[in-house]
Specification:
The protein is mainly α. Helix content is 63%, strand content 0%. The chain is built from 8 helices and no strands. It starts with a helix and ends in a 25-residue tail after the last helix. The mean pLDDT is 82.
Length: 177
């Protein structure tokens, strides 16, 4: 009985993972419902999160997190997937940054503020850490986007056979899943 249950749980997770990009795209494209299901309370929250994701993943030889619409992913995913505690932690973190004048700072000042805040946040449990939640959702949204999977990671549309140990060169990108 437990083998069947484990199989069903694993299969459900696999199918949900495979359908995730399509579900998210449909959710974001659903006009009125998407607007009603927004997590961010104001355009300034959206702008603040856009700045934050670009500080975490700026444009380099691959596009930035905002170019991959990671801020929109975070908006949708926090509303649909995060616990009430995680949502309140995230809202409080955004409000604290706004109170510190984050929106009007220069990039170097923003980075210094985030480093100080993240250092204080590191010992907190996940549900109570704004920066852990922010990083988690940023990386998930970016590397599950088409831009992240094809331009930031190495991508092979139809992969070859299994090779258990592939040597990487120093300048090679990590492989997308």
């Amino acid at each position: 009985m437990t083998d069947r249950r484990s199989f069903l749980r694993g299969t459900s997770a696999l199918m949900a993972h495979a359908a995730f990009p399509q579900v998210l795209a449909a959710f974001l494209a659903n006009g009125a419902n998407a607007q009603a299901n927004r997590f961010f309370a104001s355009p300034s929250d959206t702008n603040r999160v856009t700045l934050l994701v670009d500080l975490i993943l700026p444009a380099t030889d691959s596009p930035s997190a905002s170019e991959a619409r990671t801020h929109e992913f975070i908006d949708a995913a926090l509303n649909a997937c995060a616990t009430t505690k995680q949502q309140s932690t995230f809202r409080a973190g955004l409000a604290a940054l706004a109170a510190d004048g984050f929106d009007n700072m220069q990039t170097s000042e923003r980075i210094a503020l985030l480093q100080r805040r993240a250092k204080a946040d590191i010992s907190l449990p996940y549900d109570e850490s704004f920066f852990k939640i922010l990083k988690d959702y940023t990386l998930t949204g970016y590397f599950h986007s088409e831009i992240g999977a094809t331009k930031a990671l190495a991508y092979e549309r139809v992969p070859g056979g299994y090779q258990g140990d592939i040597q990487l060169v120093a300048t090679q990108k990590a492989w997308a899943i």
